[in-house]
Amino acid sequence: MANLAGSALAREGRMDPDSSRPRGVTQGAHRLHEASRKQRGRREEEVERGPGKRRGADMTWQAARRAPVESIASADMDFNQLEAFLTAQTKKQGGITSDQAAVISKFWKSHKTKIRESLMNQSRWDSGLRGLSWRIDGKSQSRHSAQIHTPVAIMELEIGKSGQESEFLCLEFDEVKVNQLLKKLSEVEESISTLMQPA
């Protein structure tokens, strides 16, 4: 039955007369063989050149293409800045081509928000303060009887990393420690204000 079907396909020109496979399968196998032979030839050339030369060339090419994207991301460029930057890169010796600039521009416009979020998440390597609550209590126990019933501040800090469960830290401050904390926070505030002043 298979031979009858094969001879019918051969008569219609859809069967390779030299084998029992349909013509498309034979042509596909031939193309695959040719591609494999060409790839083998390229590999042999790479072996003759040495792996270091090829890898070095690939790394140089990747670094040259990655540098503009890293600059765009670190500067968080808007679209006008992006176009000016890419135009300058295309005019630079050894820079990018206009086609590459178009691809980078389209990529940045499509993925700017995701890239920014990713960079922000990567820059937060430690836990952050998610919440703070406090209350004033009277001390009920102490080694010294004079400290019993003195007011203390109970502060609960909610700390956690992005995407993870929070941890809670409970601190107890007497009047002296509250004053020390306020002094340090005042110093932090002054430092931040100084850094935020325009130059």
Automatic annotation (TrEMBL):
UniProt-annotated stretches for the region Disordered: 1-62
Q: Which GO terms describe its cellular component?
A: Cul2-RING ubiquitin ligase complex; cytosol; early endosome; nucleoplasm; recycling endosome
* PROSITE patterns reported in the protein's UniProt record: COMM
Stretches with biased composition (Basic and acidic residues): 11-21, 31-57
Domain of life here? Eukaryota
Q: Which residues form the COMM domain?
A: 128-196
A biological process term (GO) from this entry: cholesterol homeostasis
Q: Which GO terms describe its molecular function?
A: copper ion binding; phosphatidic acid binding; phosphatidylinositol-3,4,5-trisphosphate binding; phosphatidylinositol-3,4-bisphosphate binding; phosphatidylinositol-3,5-bisphosphate binding; phosphatidylinositol-4,5-bisphosphate binding; protein homodimerization activity; sodium channel inhibitor activity
Sequence similarity: Belongs to the COMM domain-containing protein 1 family.
Name listed for the protein in its UniProt record? COMM domain-containing protein 1
Annotated source species: Ailuropoda melanoleuca
